[in-house]
Structure formats: structure tokens, C-alpha cells
TrEMBL record:
Cited PANTHER family: AB HYDROLASE-1 DOMAIN-CONTAINING PROTEIN-RELATED, ESTERASE_LIPASE_THIOESTERASE DOMAIN-CONTAINING PROTEIN
Record domain AB hydrolase-1: where: 54-321
UniProt organism field: Streptomyces purpureus
One Gene Ontology MF term: catalytic activity
Protein name as catalogued: Esterase
Domain of life: Bacteria
Gene3D superfamilies with a match to the protein in the record: alpha/beta hydrolase
Length: 331
């Protein structure tokens, strides 16, 4: 999701097509969330079937590790919560050797297994987690940034297993704008600061959108900070960038992730608006909320606004407070 140019698989080094820029922008957006989760589960009393389990889905370039503070806070409050690593991420991530050694020339062409990963793979993985979590009680499915596309599709698969959906400044495609790219092409989406993040100009056909988060280029750091966490101290931004992963499948931005009113549309849902978000600007968040509500006028978003940037509240207690309010709605 970024881009002051083309990120990912189809950059040819000459011009930067509008399509390529949008692929890049969508590919990196949302990466890690503050309050994310280091491959783990926060356990409360597993015998309390009435208490929900929070299943948290990260965005592009992200993983479960970024949610460790949120998992810890939820666990200390007595909640069950798990942050999912999507296929090709977290413990199963592939970090190109050229990325780790900062061989910038090789980074343009080194293959990545993420080129074979699809949104369908994400959905199958998260659906399996939801099925397991549902065995011990209600499930609240939470997605941040690009994780919203997975939420839509999982909700269509198993609406009967999900008590509530939470979109944390997340994409929510509908038939009007069925893909992430189509949302980014709207007037509201084109204001995203993600387009300022320079991508790796990969060779044609590589099949991944690639961002060199470990670059020493001050311009990349400045652009990433503006898009993801403009008001955070530089040291905290650098720590978050170190958690992020360089590759994402180039197929994801153009995959149909639109929600179906007869299945997804029957699940209660909350949208957490991040009012300081420059990656998915508030205007784009509002567009998605409006289009979703038009799709299911009898089951509209419950909307909450937080003064947070794209990575979410710096204090995980603020995120946990909102999830606790949702948990009460599930009782």
C-alpha cells in the first residue's frame, strides 16, 4: 500500500503506471498494528463459554508480532485473544536474502513464494482459526487495514460462527468497489499518503509488491512515517518498520473481496475510525462505511472514532477499551 511509484511485481523501471502505483499503495497499507500480537494467544478462563474470543487479522506487510501489546492488555483484563499470522507471514514469513543483506540490485528480482499466495488462502486459514475459537465460545473477528478484505470473505464463509466484526481502519469492499485497488482509485483513496512511499522497482512478472522497509534512505523513512504513524517518535516508528515484511502477493489488490448482504450482512459490525490516518484517510473510511450501510440498511455499522494514525493507538489500552465494549454487545 504505498507508493510514490510502483511497488511490486510490475514495475518496469521506466514509467510508473497509475495501476502500478495503486498496486503498491494497497500492498503495503496497514502493515502492522500497534497493539499487535507476537504469535500468541492471550488466555482468560477458557471455561467461560459466554466470553468471546477475539481473533485479530493483520494487514499487508504485517504479522501477529505487532499485536503483542494488545494481546497482553486483553489477557490482563481476562479476555481470550489470538492474533493470526496469514499464510506467508509471521513465523512462516519469507524474507528475501537480498532484503536481509540489503543487496539492492538483487532485491529487484529475487523470487518470493508469496507470489503464489491468494486471498483464498488467507480466507481458508482464518476460517480454520475461527472454527477452533468457536468451540470455546463466541468469536469477535477483528481486522486492520488490508485485513478487512479477509474479514469480508471469512464472514461470507461462516457467518454463523461470528458474533461481531470489527474493522479497525480496515478496507471493507462492497459490490460498488469490490477490490482494494478500486477503493484506492476513488477520489477519497487517491489522497492516501501511501503513494509517497517509494517501492522496490521489481522486474516484470515477479508476482509480489515489495517495499524495502530496512532501507537507509531518509526519504523512505519520512514517507513511511507520514503514512503510518505521523505523530509517533522516530524511534517507535523504526521499531514498527523492523516488524514489517517486504513482500505481499501482487494479486491481492485486485482480488474480489466484496461482502454479500445475505451472509456477511447479517453479522453485527463495528468500524473503528482512525481520525489521524493518512494511509486510509477518514474520507475513504467514511465512504466504505456508507457503502456497507447502503448494502444492509437494517444492519448498519456501529461507528467509533479514535484519534489514531494508521498503526492504531500508541496506547494498547485504548484499543482494548473498544474491544471490551464490543464484547459486552455479544453477551
Amino acid at each position: 500500500m504505498h507508493g510514490n511509484g510502483v511497488v511490486g511485481g510490475v514495475a518496469d523501471g521506466e514509467g510508473r503506471s497509475r495501476r502500478g502505483m495503486l498496486r503498491a499503495a494497497v500492498a503495503g497499507a496497514g502493515a502492522v498494528a500497534v497493539g499487535g500480537a507476537g504469535a500468541g494467544v492471550a488466555h482468560a478462563d477458557g471455561r467461560r463459554r459466554s466470553a468471546p474470543t477475539f481473533v485479530i487479522v493483520h494487514g499487508s506487510s504485517g504479522n501477529s508480532y505487532g499485536y503483542a501489546p494488545l494481546l497482553a492488555e486483553l489477557g490482563l483484563r481476562g479476555h481470550r485473544a489470538v492474533a493470526v499470522d496469514l499464510p506467508g507471514h509471521g513465523a512462516g514469513a519469507y524474507l528475501p536474502v537480498s532484503y536481509q543483506t540489503q543487496d539492492l540490485e538483487a532485491l529487484k528480482s529475487e523470487p518470493s513464494p508469496l507470489s503464489e499466495v491468494t486471498l483464498t488462502d488467507f480466507v481458508a486459514h482464518v476460517t480454520a482459526v475461527v472454527r477452533r475459537a468457536h468451540r470455546v465460545g463466541p468469536v469477535v473477528l477483528v481486522g486492520q487495514s488490508m485485513g478487512g478484505a479477509t474479514l469480508n470473505r471469512v464472514a461470507d464463509e461462516v457467518p454463523e460462527l461470528i458474533s461481531h466484526l470489527v474493522y479497525a481502519s480496515a478496507y471493507c469492499p462492497t459490490p460498488k468497489h469490490s477490490t482494494l485497488m478500486s477503493l484506492m482509485m476513488t477520489q477519497e483513496g487517491l489522497t492516501s499518503a501511501l503513494f509517497k512511499i517509494p517501492p522496490v522497482r521489481t522486474v516484470p512478472g515477479l508476482g509480489v509488491n515489495r517495499v524495502n522497509w530496512r532501507s537507509g534512505d531518509p526519504a523512505l523513512f519520512a514517507a513511511a512515517k507520514e503514512a503510518l504513524a505521523a505523530d509517533w517518535p522516530d524511534a517507535e516508528v523504526r521499531m514498527q518498520l523492523n516488524l514489517m515484511e517486504p513482500d505481499e502477493s501482487a494479486a491481492l489488490p485486485t482480488s474480489d473481496a466484496s461482502a454479500r448482504p445475505e451472509r456477511w450482512g447479517r453479522i453485527p459490525r463495528t468500524y473503528l475510525r482512525f481520525t489521524e490516518d493518512r494511509a486510509i484517510p477518514p474520507a475513504l473510511q467514511d465512504l466504505m462505511i456508507r457503502e456497507a450501510d447502503e448494502l444492509t440498511p437494517r444492519n448498519r455499522f456501529r461507528v467509533r472514532s479514535l484519534a489514531a494514525t494508521h498503526l492504531g493507538p500508541r496506547d494498547p489500552r485504548e484499543f482494548a477499551d473498544e474491544l471490551e465494549l464490543v464484547a459486552r454487545l455479544c453477551r
